[in-house]
From TrEMBL:
Domain of life from the UniProt record: Bacteria
Protein name: Methyltransferase
Matching InterPro entries: DNA_methylase_N6_adenine_CS, RsmC/RlmG, SAM-dependent_MTases_sf, Small_mtfrase_dom
Claim: Protein transport is one of the keywords in the record: no
Entry's Gene Ontology molecular function annotations: methyltransferase activity
CDD domains: AdoMet_MTases (cd02440)
Pfam families: MTS (PF05175)
Presence of the UniProt keyword Cytoplasm in the record: yes
Keywords for this protein: Cytoplasm, Methyltransferase, rRNA processing, S-adenosyl-L-methionine, Transferase
Protein species of origin: Sinisalibacter lacisalsi
Length: 322
């Protein structure tokens, strides 16, 4: 855990944390911040569920990086996102700590940093490393726009290099929709543009936990029928139910696959649909969603897909609690 590496570095005398504010970039909900004085810590994140977690835990939270004496970067899986976070951290604090596991690429990030500045120290523990730097120019690592097939994306968002195979399969299977529609896990708006091609759609909520992806979606989708909801799709509660819910749900927490995420999206769709509403989703063929779909909907059928993905249409949500 990061706290143990920071504690080890500090207690050994290798690292002297200065007085003043500490900005911690992108710590996931399970992260251990106990080695840091809570009153000095601000959590910086663009992921809505994590911000909700840290808010409930009593931490100051923000999406925009504040000025700080120390910045700590919790390494994400994406190499481009990691570089962008280091650039952001270096711009807000004179001392930057970078912590990560080997399987998240900490060694390659450390090598790239060493090409620019000599770290003040490196601590290895629990299949990961913590290193810290002062100075160095990382401005060219800052996140910049990408334009893919007419869509704006950014480093670190899901499928930043273009629509993923699941979304393409779902887009191919979707008929013209109508009424009030929600896109759960809307990303940067690829499916939303497909949905809004139907003039019978009266309203579309793009529900997305990643604020960076949602910022891209705002630029990609300018249709006045669209609204943008920065929220955890699994707990999002609209003002009124939807006629249709569309989703390409995530199925990873970090590097580990978690079918529970998709099952939570299915439960959310059931909860926010009208009694005669319908749910369109795509999933990897190996993921076991059929039981959850059967509990949530009266009628479930596979209506398309590819060798790797299944497109499912479910209708008439059961009125269950939860």
């Amino acid at each position: 855990m990061t706290a143990s590496r920071i504690s080890l570095a500090r207690d050994s005398g290798a690292l002297d944390l200065p007085d003043g504010p500490v900005a911690v970039f992108s710590p996931p909900a399970g992260y251990d911040l106990s080695a840091l004085p809570r009153e000095r810590v601000t959590v910086v994140s663009h992921f809505a569920p994590d911000l909700a977690h840290w808010t409930a835990a009593g931490y100051s939270v923000t999406r925009e990086a504040p000025r700080a004496a120390t910045a700590i970067v919790v390494l994400p899986r994406s190499k481009d996102a990691a570089r962008a976070l280091i650039a952001e951290a270096a711009a807000c604090a004179p001392l930057v700590l970078v912590d990560g596991q080997k399987h998240d690429g900490i060694d390659s990030v450390l090598k790239a940093v060493k090409a620019r500045v000599t770290p003040g120290g490196v601590i290895s523990k629990a299949h990961g490393k913590l290193f810290w730097i002062s100075g160095g120019d990382f401005s060219d690592w800052a996140a910049t726009d990408r334009v893919v097939d007419g869509f704006v994306t950014r480093a670190g968002v899901f499928s930043a290099d273009g629509p993923d195979k699941g979304s393409l399969a779902l887009a191919d299977a979707l008929p013209p929709l109508k009424g009030r529609v929600a896109d759960l896990g809307a990303g940067w708006g690829f499916l939303a543009r497909q949905i809004l091609a139907s003039e019978a759609v009266t309203h579309l909520d793009l529900v997305e936990a990643d604020a960076v992806a949602l910022d891209c979606a705002r630029r990609n989708i300018t249709d006045p029928r669209a609204a943008f909801q920065w929220a955890d799709a699994t707990s999002f509660q609209p003002d009124q139910p939807y006629d249709v819910v569309v989703s390409n749900p995530p199925f990873h927490v970090g590097r580990a696959g978690d079918p529970g995420l998709g099952q939570a999206f299915i439960a959310a769709a059931r909860r926010i649909l009208t009694p005669q509403g319908s749910f369109w989703m795509v999933a990897n063929r190996h993921l076991p969603y059929e039981e959850a779909l059967g509990r949530a909907f009266a009628h479930v059928e596979e209506v398309g897909g590819t060798p790797g993905f299944k497109v499912i249409h479910a209708t008439r949500p059961h009125r269950l609690r939860g």
